From TrEMBL:
Residues 47-103, 104-154 form the HTH myb-type domain. It is found in: Nucleus. SUPFAM superfamilies: Homeodomain-like. This is Uncharacterized protein.
Length: 267
DNA sequence: AACGTGCCCAACCGCGAAGTC
DNA sequence: AGACTTCGCGGTTGGGCACGT
């Protein structure tokens, strides 16, 4: 079954209605779900007979072997066909987030981090779309990285990670320090005394050329809220989202992997 | 050494979207 | 047309590890 990934083809109107923060979307979802009962929904699998929790090496191997031969598709039937006591959803997640041969693991580079921030400013919490611009990275990985690293970092810098607004009331010297490395020509005029705050590098520089998303930001001073807004306009809204890197149906090589229950997570 | 706390991240859950019957 | 099925997404959880006391 071939589908167009959700939100892949952003219409111009959608591009212009930048989802600064997930608020709107979430509120909508919330209000809808409050009015709908899902009591009739069937469980996605027979929970009695399915394994849950961390995957064992044997389970991984079964899934890899199966997909190596048959390719991805029809996740619901894969567990049975592959001899796994897992639900299809769990198989899909394990494959997509961990076993796929094209997954790039390891620490995020500065360029990747900057790109994530830029894309988040533009797309909000649409992790799958963001992941589509970062070859080898999964939405789950990016989401985790955002929540555990970037989010905190932005807060520390005095930037609201939800709406990407620079808060005015933050200890400026701290921000100066943090931005020092990336600060050069561009700066933001913040206060009446014309003190200047360097713009974080991810707001200044255009994206890496091969990412196909370009930015230009200007800042303005929002008197009422006493925040410095990194305006979304005029943005180059060439947000043509390319399809994520093609996934291999056949795995050629075994990849060194994963963490299993007993393995250590950290070095 | 023992305990508490915070962080990381794999995995789960619920739900909407899209396809099929 | 509408019920049902399947997929994919985003939010959340919980186990395990690192680090501080």
């Amino acid at each position: 079954m071939e589908r167009t990934p959700k939100g892949l083809d952003l219409s111009l109107s959608e591009k212009l209605q930048l989802p600064y923060g997930p608020g709107l979307h979430n509120n909508l979802t919330l209000s809808l779900s409050n009015n709908v009962t899902h009591a009739m929904r069937k469980p996605c699998c027979d929970k009695e007979r399915t394994n849950k929790g961390a995957w064992s090496k044997q389970e991984d191997q079964k899934l890899i072997d199966y997909i190596r031969v048959h390719g991805e598709g029809c996740w619901r039937s894969i567990p049975k066909a592959a001899g796994l006591h897992r639900c299809g959803k769990s198989c899909r997640l394990r494959w997509m987030n961990y076993l796929r041969p094209d997954i790039k693991r390891g620490v995020f580079g500065q360029d990747e981090e900057d790109l994530i921030i830029k894309l988040h400013a533009l797309l909000g919490n649409r992790w799958s779309l963001i992941a589509g611009r970062l070859p080898g990275r999964t939405d789950n990985e990016i989401k985790n990285y955002w929540n555990s690293h970037i989010r905190r970092k932005l807060i520390k810098m005095g930037i609201d990670p939800d709406n990407h607004k620079l808060q005015q009331r933050f200890p400026l010297p701290h921000v100066h320090q943090d931005y020092a490395a990336g600060a050069s020509s561009s700066s933001v005029s913040m206060n009446n005394d014309h003190s200047r705050v360097p713009v974080p590098p991810f707001f200044k520089s255009p994206c890496a050329p091969n990412n196909g998303v370009s930015f230009s930001s200007k800042c303005c001073h929002d008197e009422e809220e006493e925040t410095v807004m990194i305006s979304s306009s005029p943005l180059n809204l060439d947000l043509t989202i390319a399809l994520p890197s093609p996934r291999l149906a056949i795995i050629v090589e075994d990849k060194p992997t994963p963490n299993y229950e007993s393995s250590t997570k950290r070095s």
